[in-house]
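ok new one. same drill as before - structure tokens go in, u give me an amino acid for every spot. 71 of them this time. try not to just spam alanines like last time pls lmao
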């Protein structure tokens, strides 16, 4: 990754090593997903774990999509 900036590298990278995302694994039927919990019972899909290729083509299950975490 290249980053062009006029700021000192120390200022650009400040706080990057302190960020620790909180991810959980959610299972829906035969699909396992890694999800970042958000507020109000929602989560953002980070990764899909499935050996079925059609699962990865489902537009509702793409990384970045929001899903309900409430059963």
């Amino acid at each position: 990754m290249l980053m062009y900036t006029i700021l000192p590298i120390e200022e650009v990278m400040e706080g990057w090593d302190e960020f620790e995302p909180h991810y959980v694994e959610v299972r829906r039927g035969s699909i396992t997903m890694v999800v970042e919990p958000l507020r109000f019972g929602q989560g953002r899909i980070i990764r899909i774990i499935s050996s079925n290729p059609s699962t990865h083509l489902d537009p509702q299950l793409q990384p970045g999509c929001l899903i309900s975490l409430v059963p």
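Residues 21-66 form one domain. and btw DSSP finds two helices and four strands in the chain.
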